[in-house]
Design goal:
- The structure holds 2 protein chains of 2 kinds.
- By secondary structure, chain A is an alpha/beta fold.
- Chain A has 11 helices and 12 strands.
- Chain B has one domain.
- The chains are: A alpha/beta, B mainly alpha.
């Protein structure tokens, strides 16, 4: 199951964090900053705002141009300005980041989005981007444009609807930080089965566990009491992969409904890592998938690996 | 063929386009039209049905919706390309184009700082007086120049006052909402006051002329409608202050800092004087000459003069104007005229009257209710101008006095207080990110009740005296 060659290139990872406001996005940004810094990855911070009704789009643009003459910036730029300050606070030792200044004169439109150019920054490590439109559509475009490996997004009130769109349509791995508390001690719960996505999930799990020192449990769930060679082999390979990297791992085998078992086992102190579904997209749309159902039913942070 | 997630996503994003066109195809091929409606009329109604779905759900950009209106009229509606083209460009479209250009030309001159100073000098630093001043000035200015220009100029003033008021966003949420809604609702209630207050007013005037329903001059319109604006101003202030009680009674520091900020702009420049003078001429032209030359032509004279005097560049105009909206109004008006010509509008009018006669036996009251309800509800879903473009031909076929029914429809189309979609002023304040969709509902229903009562008041007591 495990590939001989690594499926993830930890040297050139690109993460994208979506922020909505200073009020609600602090934990998401904190996690984005933390894992970007431990992975030494570049970090894009994107604000996706509501697009003005097209009928009045001209009037809104005219007003925004006029607001600029009063030094009043787009509300999304305000959020990005906050995000930059917050990143500086989260990374006090990062002297390159400390030099970066937010300057609205350095805002320019490119590829249907607004990007803040930061001339003082270290090349390509932090990007601030403003987009307008429907959330999943805009995140998808941003991920495709910049080839991000991981999108980090906060939990949503509208979870049932978003769970489906985020998991099925975002073309990168997705880390949904539901009820994430930055100071809480989490354990990693890796869901292992015989699917292709498990190999990459194990790699992600190992990288995170190594970098953050979080304990790891693997969970393999079978609907019958018999754990076939595929499941057993995947669990053993995962264990071996962790142990080869000196990461302690607890193995669990449980019989039951997979999604209910994941949700019950995760409780409220695990970060769940699972592979994206390899089901046909039409079947996923009609009947859902394990990741979609798990995300919809659990309240803990969940990383879906693609 | 393997279906990828990309394809599913694309289909999901475009599902309303498929729903619109497939339901249109089913209606066209498999559902026979009513016997009392001509085939052309039926086909025009199918096109309108598809277009309403596209406007409401926006699966394609607005200009694309305009384009499909044009070609469907030729393919399904039985019109010749030249026929569609001839209805496409008219005085209403000239006016919408001209007023959008005038807004770009005037807003870019920085006159808002003078306006801010004028308002603050007039109102002083008491919050209720500032809210009242914003509402009254927005209403009066918007009645002549349109709500988008007024909101674009006053929003920075309000946001600067909010910025200079101490405290975090939560501690001044009432003040924020009161100031922003005073501009949005003020501009919206004012936009009915004169024909130049909004594109929809001119669209209705155009329909009156096109359908041979009579006409109203600029000043006649004002006589009939302006009293309603004056009634609504104090009531709107009351509603805003009661719904969003400001946390601060006095904005002393904020006002002083605002005065310092705008004082930097120095003495009024020759450029600013010229801007005001030219707009004064345009306004006089609208009032005195529009019956002969049309509101649109006069607006375009104004634009020509702004360009000729170098007060605005063509580049700024072409970048600042939403050409898609102009395209959409042209095509919506052309389908409105076709709806009338093919009998589709009369059929819909008869249908709505027929359905409701049992409930409301008084035919005059029924016509008024249909006109107001249809316009009021649709304007909260579409935009007010698009509402009049679509509903206008139906209202003018209800029977009764087309001028008064048309006016009622235009006035009711300004009752889009419930959502951020209906009126440009509401969309603009919503885009500031400082008011929520629920705020519109909270104040909107009170505004709607007040506006309906005000309309009844002038329709029953004022119009019979004049008309």
């Amino acid at each position: 199951m495990m590939s001989k060659h690594s499926l993830i290139n930890p040297e050139s990872l690109r993460f994208l964090t979506a922020v909505s406001s200073s009020e609600f996005s602090r934990p998401t940004l904190a996690m984005g900053s933390l894992i970007a810094s431990v992975f030494d990855a570049s970090l894009g911070v994107v604000y996706v705002g509501e697009k003005a009704n097209e009928f009045h789009g001209g009037a809104v643009n005219l007003t925004r141009q006029n607001l600029e003459t009063w030094d009043i910036i787009h509300p999304g730029l305000d959020v990005l300005k906050w995000a930059l300050q917050e990143l500086k606070k989260l990374n006090p030792e990062n002297t390159d980041l400390a030099k970066i200044q937010f300057n609205t004169d350095h805002v320019f439109e490119e590829d249907g989005r607004i990007k803040i150019i930061m001339p003082d920054k270290e090349d390509g490590r932090i990007e601030l981007i403003l987009r307008e439109g429907e959330l999943v559509d805009q995140l998808r475009k941003e991920i495709q444009l910049e080839s991000y490996d991981l999108a980090i997004i906060g939990g949503s009130q509208n979870k049932q609807h978003l769970a489906h769109s985020i998991i099925q349509y975002l073309p990168s791995s997705v880390f949904v930080l539901q009820k994430f508390a930055p100071r809480k001690k989490y354990k990693l719960l890796l869901l292992v089965d015989d699917s292709q996505a498990t190999a990459k999930s194990v790699e992600w799990g190992a990288l995170i566990a190594q970098k953050l020192g979080w304990p790891v449990k693997t969970l393999t769930v079978s609907k019958t009491k018999l754990f076939g060679p595929g499941y057993q082999g995947a669990a053993d390979m995962a264990k071996a992969y962790f142990e080869a990297r000196n990461i302690d791992v607890e193995q669990h085998f449980i019989t039951g409904d997979p999604v209910s078992t994941f949700v019950d086992f995760a409780g409220d102190d695990h970060i769940v890592i699972m592979g994206a579904s390899t089901l046909n997209p039409v079947k996923q749309l009609l009947f859902g998938s394990k990741p979609i159902k798990t995300l919809a039913r659990t309240d803990v942070p969940i990383l879906i690996v693609r | 063929m393997r279906i990828s997630a990309d394809m599913i996503f694309w289909i999901q994003q475009k599902r309303w386009l498929f729903i619109a066109f497939i339901s249109g195809a089913i209606l066209y091929h498999f559902v026979p039209g009513p016997a009392s409606l001509s085939p052309e009329g039926y086909h025009i109604l199918i096109i309108i049905f598809m277009t309403l779905i596209l406007i409401l759900k926006e699966p394609v950009p607005l200009p694309a919706i305009a384009l499909q209106l044009i070609f469907w009229q030729v393919i399904l509606g039985g019109s010749t390309p030249n026929e569609v083209g001839s209805y496409f460009m008219n005085d209403a479209v000239f006016f919408i184009m001209g007023s959008l250009m005038l807004a770009v030309a005037i807003v870019s001159q920085g006159l808002d700082k003078r306006l801010a100073l004028g308002i603050i000098r007039f109102t002083g630093n008491k919050t209720w007086r500032i809210v009242s001043g914003f509402t009254a000035i927005s209403a009066i200015l918007s009645s002549f120049v349109g709500p988008h220009m007024v909101t674009a100029m006053l929003l920075p003033v309000a946001l600067t006052l909010i910025k200079f008021t101490s405290g975090d966003a939560k501690s001044k949420s009432g003040l924020t909402a009161a100031l922003l809604f005073s501009i949005a609702y003020g501009a919206t209630i004012g936009s009915i006051g004169t024909p130049s207050g909004g594109g929809r007013n001119v669209i209705m005037m155009n329909y009156w002329a096109e359908f041979g329903s009579g006409s109203l001059s600029y000043l006649e319109w004002m006589k009939l409608v302006y009293p309603m604006v004056l009634i609504e101003i104090p009531l709107t202030i009351l509603i805003i202050l009661k719904t969003f009680p400001p946390e601060m009674q006095v904005l002393d520091t904020a006002v002083r800092r605002l005065i310092v900020e705008v004082a930097h702009s120095g003495k009024i420049s020759a450029r600013e004087v010229m801007t005001i003078v030219l707009f004064g001429f345009v306004l006089l032209g609208w009032m005195l000459l529009s019956e002969d030359y049309g509101l649109g032509s006069i607006a375009l004279i104004g634009v020509f003069l702004y360009l000729a005097f170098g007060l605005v560049s063509w580049k700024d105009l072409s970048l600042g104007v939403n050409w898609g909206v102009i395209l959409l109004f042209g095509s919506t008006i052309s389908i409105g005229v076709q709806m009338k010509n093919t009998g589709g509008a009369a059929w819909l009018a008869d249908l709505s009257v027929g359905l409701l006669t049992a409930v409301i036996p008084n035919i005059e009251a029924l016509r008024a209710i249909v006109s107001v309800a249809l316009s009021g509800v649709m304007s909260n879903l579409l935009s007010s101008s698009a509402t009049v473009a679509v509903v206008g031909p139906i209202v003018l076929n209800l029977g009764g006095d087309p001028i008064l029914l048309g006016l009622s429809s235009v006035i009711a189309s300004a009752f889009g207080y419930f959502t951020a979609v209906a009126a440009p002023a509401c969309t603009i304040i919503y885009s500031s990110g400082l008011v929520k969709a629920s705020d519109f509902l909270q104040a909107g229903w009170k505004m709607a009740v007040m506006s309906v009562l005000s309309l009844m008041f002038i329709a029953l007591l004022w119009w019979p005296v004049l008309h």
